[in-house]
Amino acid sequence: MCSPMCALWLPYVPIAPQVSAAREEVPGRRGFPGYMYTDLASIYERAGRVGGRGGSITQIPILTMPNDDITHPIPDLTGFITEGQIYVDRQLHNRQIYPPINVLPSLSRLMKSAIGEGMTRRDHGDLSNQLYACYAIGKDVQAMKAVVGEEALSADDLLYLEFLHKFERHFIAQGPYENRSVFESLELGWQLLRTFPRQMLKRIPDDVLDEFYPREGRAGGGTAL
Q1: How large is the greatest C-alpha to C-alpha distance in the chain, in angstroms?
Q2: What does the angle CA 98 – CA 184 – CA 162 come to, to the nearest 5 degrees?
Q3: For the chain, what is the domain count?
Q4: Is there a cis peptide before residue 17, judged by omega within 30 degrees of 0?
Q5: What is the C-alpha to C-alpha distance for residues 163 and 138, in angstroms, rounded to an integer?
Q6: Are strands 84-88 and 101-108 parallel, antiparallel or unpaired?
Q7: Which position has the higher pLDDT, 30 or 6?
Q8: Which of 57, 97, 152, 196 has its CA 20 to 30 A from that of 16?
């Protein structure tokens, strides 16, 4: 949600280096003033407050990154201030994966407090870590394949490539009218991990694997991919 206050600070950010230089202040990264973090934090806080009322408004600022550079001072500082970030990826969009969310740079600082037994399911955290790790390795293998060719890849490498394609097409991608629950996503995650033999899933404890990994699947686990 973006309040009128958001519209007020939009012109401020691009001209901040010029204003700082005119004041003869010591520049920080890429010419932006050193107090940029403080200014952004105070602006975001103001945008989420309502006078005379308790609580706060959840704000979702939408940032465009110059040259898709996430290390640019503004998106970088915003990532430190907010409770998380969702990275919309141009390459995924070009491959018609919707929504085109790149899970590797995306994050949530509140996730650990909101998942697990009693809130979602006890395997949620371990499953998330394993999916993330397998996808990251798959991206590395994809980059290596572009250099050395598929013939030079090992059997394990090919499994990671297979997982990467399934993860993007079945887990990240959702139809515009699809309403997938958290528990359906967890079951889908296990289906994807069954691409690998059990011994390759090193981020999940044995007791969790015993309950959720078996290939015959659990009741209501959905169809095979």
Answers
A1: 69
A2: 60
A3: 2
A4: no
A5: 7
A6: antiparallel
A7: 30
A8: 57
CATH of the domain at 174: 1.10.1140
Please tell me whether residues 64 and 151 are part of one structural domain.
Answer: no
Any alpha helices (H) in 11-72, and if so which ranges?
A: 12-22, 36-47
Q: How confident is the model at residue 22 (pLDDT cuts 50, 70, 90)?
A: confident
| Domain limit, last residue, from 65, 82, 99 | 82
Q: CB burial class (10 A; 0-12, 13-18, 19+) of residue 141? A: buried
DSSP three-state, residue 103:
strand
Q: Which of 65, 67, 61 is nearest to 40 (CA)?
A: 61
Three-state secondary-structure class, residue 71 = coil
Helices and strands in the chain, H and E counts: 10, 2
Exposed / middle / buried, residue 164 (Cβ in 10 Å: 0-12, 13-18, 19+): buried
Q: Strand ranges (DSSP E) for 8-132?
A: 84-88, 101-108
Residue 15: C-alpha distances to residues 29, 36, 130, 151, 172 (Å): 14, 12, 43, 51, 37
